[in-house]
């Protein structure tokens, strides 16, 4: 006896056929039978005798008489010649056949009879399991076939397809290493079956043919399990599968074991999964689309009933829902509400799909649109947000929805996409059905927007005074009140009061629920304003913590609208810290991003001012010219805030354009400075020094005197903020040409404002140059400019030092941003660093000390530089560098 076992397509039947051919050639008599579902008792054995046309075989009678008849026939044949009994698919044999096999194998042990029995692996038929155990116990040989190794499969494919073997590669991963499946695949490819696929559906016909054949080898119950699982997703739990099939776990064990043994699916830790995604796709393709959608919908309903969160079902529900599906709408709305605080892009996608499902439900669709508008604002899709807001305003489903859209439009910048803006606002403020918190937030948002844009400040201040006596209806409103009061204090130059009013803002922001939180413009503006105040008063570390937190939240959640605001704030902080080169890189990222809501009237001028101030230090002339063009545009406007910003940018770019400011420009810049802030950007305490210097240079000392008086009054009003005192002393020192005051100012600026400290030292040097005391002040100023990459300032001071006859060495690294100094005649970065030092007179040892390398390394770099530059002495090198690099830098 030989028991042959293996999965379907492992080659069992092929081996049985080969064995029968060998036995027949040796003279044995062959009897072939096969088990199958639905056959009558003993049919597999009786069918084996059919080819012999033995009398009586077609009417054997009852099973007991049939067993005796089969026994007699086998004995009779075996006495004539050796007998081979081949039975395939034993697992499908009926119980009478299995019992007969068990009985006859024992009775006929003394006769020349060889039994070849084949069954599939992982039997789940008790009688077949018993038969295998008993036969093996009686020393029946057992041969188990397993999937082939990859190398063997590749060899088989090459033997069957030859040079076309590569065509089989994409399909091999889901054949499970079964040789029968490989042979079938190769026959399909050799016949070029469906190689071009279905041009209408894009389906892979070869994959479907292979998988269909493997499905046909399953029992009906196992086939139903695979078909159902294919419609439910990549992984499905057994309990969930039982719920969909309407069966319990015990009844699912047999077909499940069959499916796992067939290698179509695998059991993972908590679910069942297909062995390859293409297997699942091919199986699912055999299901009619209505059936597939129905199964998926039933799966979603079951999981919802089991308490699965809509977050995990929304995407699937969006794919299978039909228009007007109320449950689908509820799932999508709930999911959008839950994910909006952390993933507004995903929430917006859910609401878009919900809107498409509610086309025949106008009121429902408008409410969904109202919820979608703020999400689009957060993700930077402003045009779509305004279009939807317009739809809602023209056909609002109710007063509360109308008021909510008005609030969102105010947050976006108060540019309503429909006529009669004031009428819409009055309706929102006075309708009885609008909740008081919405009215309160709308009024405060309107005031904040107008204050940021510099519109109707007196009206806003009066309204704020009235609000001080009304109770807060919402924590968001309470936080916005703090910010408004703080901004009013800043407008009056009462910065200590402004800082105190904003103290509660971070804590108030954390009290907001996830629906409000950091997503709302009022919150972002309030936090950014608080950070600006901290930076203004010298608390740079605390300001950085707020800015980095806001930036991280915007990047993590995908709120692209807020990225420019936080990056601009970070650039301002870097500039304060004396790092203009880093600030320039941050602003470059700002210019490539979307605008924040409400940016047109306030944010863009604030960015332009920061860009101009940064470019002034870095020496980026192209950026300065761009900012100068913006200044000309602003100065031509009637809006006081824009004119003020234009005057200030003109002041910053005057040196670049070799321009002397007019009195009108100076007055506009002075008015800008007195306002204290633009959007959420506070003007630096030391900015007044630039106004004084520009007014003196233009010959308008009366403007300079007013600026000095302003700085001194501001310092007097803010005695606890030392930066304002330092700025006042610096301004007075400039106006009075008093080096003592300038040095005092430099000391007071200290490490908190290194660029202001450097400028005060430079100014002190200018005032003492005539008497020979400028050198140490210039040298210290130069080191501060060098440290932060303030290239224009560095070149200016270096020129002053050369005018005094001093030998100055540049910084070790190539920090200059001029093209000639960073990419000159093919020198490497290391070689250029050495050349710059040597050109200014450094010895090899001095250069080595500055570069933190050995003198030998310096000598090597210098020798290579000589070869590239075609010079033969240090003097020639110095002249060439002065002519081609220093001259270009000086004219830049």
UniProtKB/TrEMBL annotation:
Name a biological process GO annotation.
Answer: regulation of DNA-templated transcription
Q: Which UniProt keywords apply?
A: DNA-binding, Transcription, Transcription regulation
Molecular function terms, GO-annotated: DNA binding
Q: Which organism is it from?
A: Streptomyces canus
Looking up InterPro entries in the UniProt record yields:
P-loop_NTPase, Sig_transdc_resp-reg_C-effctor, Tscrpt_reg_LuxR_C, WH-like_DNA-bd_sf
Q: What is this protein called?
A: DNA-binding CsgD family transcriptional regulator
In terms of SMART domains, this protein maps to: HTH_LUXR
Q: A Pfam family name for this chain? A: GerE
Q: Which residues form the HTH luxR-type domain?
A: 820-885
